[in-house]
């Protein structure tokens, strides 16, 4: 537990540091948010009044502390272009992005773990050749290109899936999941390709260890040795790679949501960047950083569960 508390303290310190970096970078961007909201033809006294209302006439450090205080209370500020609370905007978009990311991760694990395990258990076999070809293709082809191919090859050809858009969860679970299926597949294939390669390599390495050969010599079957001794140890590098792939998944979400015109966080970030809605960009960037760092913290915590050696080290 001491190791987890130590990692949590590092996580909090890192989040404070990254929030300061994001705030300073956004503050250095040229442009007046008051002019963005009111237009360049607004009267000077009106612009000055809005700057005072937004706190833009305050010292930089005061604005940073006010932002942190707002974050602690769930107040992320007001969007310059939508004139809507940023927390409301992000909440609406998360209802699309979080299920999409969850589906993509679930699908990538459902492909990678069995495929990589069977390929590693029998190197140079038929399954291994399929896994190797899948890994090379999945890593080589970018996810937005896979998305375009899915639209052309499946959505337009069969009509089973929409080519874009999201009907909303109010339209029913099945229409919503149908709209997220192809985007999730496009996100999952590159992730699954990387994880398949890592799983295969880990299974081959662990299978050659002395404790596995000892188990086989004592009469354990190949399947029993694979499930009981190989897989638990092979999961450590897989979990490590899964944590590292989170940032790639988030970057892919921005592209895929725009390819499929999904109203998610990626689309919000793109629109905010195009409209110079700095307060939205600031909060979205911090949110993505929190997701990446938070999931890496969870991965570190999982090490303690997966690897018993970490529970006895001091």
The gist of it:
This protein has helices at residues 2-28, 33-38, 44-54, 60-72, 86-121, 126-140, 143-158, 173-207, 210-217, 222-259, 265-274, 278-306, 309-312.
Question: Explain this structure to me?
Answer:
With 314 residues, this protein is an all-alpha fold. The protein folds into two domains: 1-79, no CATH class; 87-311, Orthogonal Bundle (MetI-like fold), CATH 1.10.3720. The chain is 79% helix and 0% strand. The chain contains 13 helices and no strands. The protein has helices spanning 2-28, 33-38, 44-54, 60-72, 86-121, 126-140, 143-158, 173-207, 210-217, 222-259, 265-274, 278-306, 309-312. The longest helix is centred in the last third of the chain and has 38 residues, at 222-259. The radius of gyration is 24 Å and the shape is globular.
Instruction: Tell me the structural class.
Output: mainly alpha
Mean pLDDT: 84
- CATH-derived architecture of the largest domain: Orthogonal Bundle
DSSP, total strands: 0
Give the CA-CA distance, first to last residue: 11 Å
Helix content: over 70%
In CATH, the homologous superfamily of the largest domain goes by the name: MetI-like
Shape: globular
Strand content: under 5%
Tell me about the largest β-sheet: none
Number of helices: 13
CATH topology of the largest domain: MetI-like fold
Protein name: Peptide ABC transporter
InterPro entries: BPD_transp_1_N (IPR045621), MetI-like (IPR000515), MetI-like_sf (IPR035906)
Keywords: Cell membrane, Membrane, Transmembrane, Transmembrane helix, Transport
Main location: membrane
């Amino acid at each position: 537990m001491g190791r987890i508390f130590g990692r949590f303290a590092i996580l909090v310190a890192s989040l404070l540091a990254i929030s300061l970096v994001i705030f300073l970078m956004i503050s250095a961007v040229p442009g007046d948010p008051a002019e963005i909201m009111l237009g360049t033809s607004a009267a000077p006294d009106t612009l000055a009044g809005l700057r005072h209302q937004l706190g833009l006439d305050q010292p930089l450090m005061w604005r940073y502390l006010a932002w942190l205080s707002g974050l602690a209370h769930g107040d992320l500020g007001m969007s310059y272009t939508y004139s809507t609370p940023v927390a409301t905007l992000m909440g609406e978009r998360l209802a699309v992005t979080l299920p999409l990311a969850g589906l993509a991760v679930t699908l990538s694990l459902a492909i990678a773990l069995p495929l990589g395990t069977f390929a590693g258990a029998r190197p140079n076999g038929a399954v291994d050749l399929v896994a190797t070809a899948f890994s090379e293709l999945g890593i080589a082809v970018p996810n937005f290109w896979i998305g375009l191919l899915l639209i052309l090859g499946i959505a337009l050809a069969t009509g089973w899936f929409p080519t874009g858009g999201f009907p909303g969860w109010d339209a029913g679970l099945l229409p919503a999941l149908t709209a997220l299926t192809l985007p999730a597949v496009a996100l999952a294939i590159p992730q699954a390709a990387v994880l398949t390669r890592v799983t295969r390599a880990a299974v081959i390495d662990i299978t050659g260890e002395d404790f596995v050969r000892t188990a086989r010599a004592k009469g354990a079957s190949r399947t029993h040795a694979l499930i009981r001794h190989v897989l638990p140890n092979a999961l450590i590098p897989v979990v490590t790679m899964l944590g590292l792939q989170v940032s790639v998944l988030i970057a892919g979400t921005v592209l895929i949501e725009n390819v499929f015109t999904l109203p998610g966080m990626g689309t919000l970030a793109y629109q905010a960047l195009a409209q110079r809605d700095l307060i939205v960009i600031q909060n979205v960037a911090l949110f993505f950083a929190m997701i990446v760092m938070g999931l890496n913290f969870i991965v570190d915590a999982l090490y303690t569960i997966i690897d018993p050696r970490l529970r006895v080290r001091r």
